[in-house]
Amino acid sequence: MGTGKATRTIVQRLETRKLDWVASTIGLYNEVAHFYFLVITNYPSLQGLGVKNATSKLEKLTVVSKARPAVEIPLPWDKLPRDFRRAAIASAVGSASSFFTNLNKWSNRKQARQAKGKKFTERPPVPPRTWNIKPTFYAQMYLRDSFAVMLKLFTGESWSWVKFKTVGREIPQGWEFRCPHLVQKGGRLELHFPIEKVFEKPQKVKEQVKDEDVKICSVDLNISDRLAVCTILKRDGTQVATKFIRGGDYLNARRKCCLGRVARNRRLTGICKSGETDNKGLWEKVRHIDDYEAHRISRRIVDFARENGASIIVFEHLANFKPKKGKYSRRGNEKRAYWLRGKIYKFTKYKAWEYGIIISRVNPRNTSRDCSYCDVSPIFRHGEHEQPTEYRPGAPLFTCANGHRGNADLNASRNIGFKLFARHGYQKPVASESLRRGCSNSPCNLPNNEMDVVTSGVVRESERGTGAPHVYPSLVGCEPIITEPEVIQPSLFDLQEVESTTQMLRTPRRQGCRKKQETTSDSIQLSLF
Ligand SMILES: [Zn+2]
Predict the structure, then answer these.
(1) Rounded to the nearest whole angstrom, what is the distance from the C-alpha of residue 402 to the centroid of ligand 1?
(2) Which of 111, 294, 330, 419 could form a disulfide bond with 362, CB atoms 3.0-4.6 angstroms apart?
């Protein structure tokens, strides 16, 4: 088995001082990198080399020393620190390699088109027109401790060490850090430390599901208040734990408020010139709200999976956004709610990888339309006090023709998990089996004649629990299956999940209060992203 590597960036903020020296250092770094880029493009023998080889060859070509008094292309700058020059060379080699890769791909495409006798109109890639690389500080260029960092900066004439106080996260334990990049954002200075962790590479999904005890965390992402519903499932159909991550309504309200303000501002100013960004602050706020939520939710998904020992997280492939008619702010809000799901997936992927948890995706077809206990399709979706008569998209509860009831999103989440097992040849057990496991006092264990709770005209209870293939009555034109919700034995479905659902529905939501956002069996500590 190989090793896996996780990388991330830790940002440390520097106190704002000596901005002119910082600017001249960044400017010089980019000039040097551009110079070496031109050298590489003019010497085909240097192209396609790794950083190490290219650096030694480029230094022989350009750097004067005692052993090498004359070189082919002398550097136009005096007294460049060695590590500064080498970092710039590495950046130039990176840019050149990316440029030549693109050029090769382009010429391959051209040849392929021309071989077919077709016209090729695509323009070739061009070398970078402007240079805006963040300088890397190699070992001889900086010194750091917990509260400060010393950087060697170019003053415009000479080199000088400057001390900056730093604020930011420490490098977490078990991670190694690499050379930092200096980033200037307006009047703000930051040092970005790439950090790395090496661990044993997890096995592929195909291998992992061979283990009988493997646990997966299946996640259903929504645009309603229940942003994510997670379920820990085992291969035999056991549902180990569930977690509802809420806060969608609060998020939508905040986002819509910003979008409404954008729309009102635009009405006042008219159409802006093309290329001009309007309402910068508001758009930034919208982006920050979404990023924050995506980080919050992905962190909770990963923590939940870890707590329960799940080694795979399953999502469904995200469907395309289908806009509905409505006001600008409403459409924009809905669109962003869809995009948020993509962000959550992306963030969960890299956060999970740090713990050796892998991500898989399944086909979203019918995940919310099938009953996860007995595969009846479609189920009825309805509100708490509604009769289950139709599939109403977005409704919180579901009832199937066999009387299974519960939270509709939890049902979807279970379906997603079972789809992953089914893909590798492990079909979920028949409904009766999973029900028995879920509730030990269930009437499913009783003889069939004791289970006839619901009278004729509706689905007979005895049809469940026999283990025989189910034959479902036609759903068209039949009466509402459950006329009295109280008649249903609570133990026929997972009591806990329905309780938590009804609890959720009955709790009046307080706007602006973030404490009530999650309904979960266990409380999750708030941790850093
Ligand atoms: Zn069912």
Answers:
(1) 5
(2) 419
